[in-house]
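Lecture notes, continued. The same structure-token format from the folding unit now serves as the input rather than the output. Read the line below as a description of shape only.
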């Protein structure tokens, strides 16, 4: 039997949410770097460069990748041989306390967005609780926790449909992607859940987003002529056809709308066919390793937040109703930035 202390789980959750607030997953950064290298559209290439630069600034300064720090979502698997000898809280309460600590960290406060009574008073809970917790009891004596901070840009664009067995899943996805516009901040990762009951399809999609970005490995496998499974064929087909739509980085066109795609399937009744897809945006994140990027030429950052430590919060860029963060090591302008701030020469 494995004994786990209540405080250990709480602090681990708090540390994880702080960690993912300023580190992109390394697999995502590598995929985005490859997208930058092959991009042909100047506007899309510049947008990808800004995402990469923002990622570097966040990693170095331990400040949020985006002002929308999301709702806490946790997948937790608890082994049946695990005990909680000193626990006075439920699993939900322990995770909520971890979220509360993370979002209230004075060195890196995260925006609390969760509302109580969403159909009524809509009062902010002030600490981003409660988290959305998916709990599973599994064999063994370990606890596995996956944390994600899902922002409104990705969550609000989620889609669900009850398709007939004769309907084409790929056609449905290709029809929905352009409707989403740029509000989900592409390029991102798309997860698709197929089958089961409606809520199971949604959960499958969410879980698939947590998987590593390994589409490049699948492409390499296909190039060798190896036989692919039907889910693998579906992933490659969707990746190619979604990117061919030309939505591109930040909706500016170009070659890359998604740089990762995964699908998961569950048992289902003969009819109808439930399909749901969710996505992680350019700032999408899950627990991952630190990022090490080469120096980039564009240095800029925006968001609704107050400065901490030695940061200076300036007026908004002309194209965004938000404030700009500039740390002491980040110059007020860099190569390529002047053309974006011509309406505010006083910022230079």
């Amino acid at each position: 039997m494995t004994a786990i202390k209540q405080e250990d789980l709480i602090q681990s959750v708090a540390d994880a949410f702080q960690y993912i607030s300023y580190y992109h997953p390394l697999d995502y950064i590598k995929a985005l770097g490859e997208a930058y290298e092959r991009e042909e559209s100047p506007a899309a290439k510049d947008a990808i460069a800004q995402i990469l630069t923002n990622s570097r600034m966040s990693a170095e300064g331990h400040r949020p990748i985006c002002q929308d720090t999301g709702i806490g979502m946790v997948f937790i698997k608890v082994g049946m041989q695990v005990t909680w000898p000193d626990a006075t809280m439920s699993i939900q309460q322990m995770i909520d306390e971890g979220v509360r600590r993370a979002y209230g960290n004075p060195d890196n406060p995260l925006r609390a967005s969760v509302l109580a009574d969403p159909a009524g008073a809509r009062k902010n809970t002030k600490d981003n609780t409660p988290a959305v917790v998916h709990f599973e009891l599994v064999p063994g004596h370990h606890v596995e926790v996956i944390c994600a901070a899902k922002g409104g840009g990705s969550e609000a664009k989620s889609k669900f449909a009850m398709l007939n067995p004769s309907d084409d899943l790929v056609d449905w996805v290709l029809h929905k992607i352009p409707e989403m516009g740029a509000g989900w901040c592409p390029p991102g990762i798309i997860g698709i859940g197929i089958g089961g009951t409606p809520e199971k399809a949604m959960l499958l999609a969410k879980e698939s987003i947590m998987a590593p970005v390994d589409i490049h490995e699948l492409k390499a496998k296909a190039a060798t002529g190896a036989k692919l499974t039907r889910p693998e064929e579906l992933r490659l087909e969707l990746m190619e056809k979604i990117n061919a739509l030309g939505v591109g980085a930040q909706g500016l066109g170009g070659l890359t709308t998604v740089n990762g795609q995964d699908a998961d399937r569950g048992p289902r009744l003969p009819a109808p066919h439930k399909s749901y897809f969710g996505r992680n945006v350019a700032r999408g994140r899950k627990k991952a390793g630190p990022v090490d990027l080469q120096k980039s030429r564009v240095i800029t950052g925006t968001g609704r937040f107050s400065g901490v430590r030695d940061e200076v919060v300036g007026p908004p860029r002309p194209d965004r109703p938000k404030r700009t963060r500039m740390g002491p090591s980040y110059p007020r302008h860099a190569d390529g930035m002047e053309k974006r701030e011509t309406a505010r020469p006083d910022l230079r």
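Point for the exam: Residues 281-303, 317-348 have pLDDT under 50 and may be disordered.
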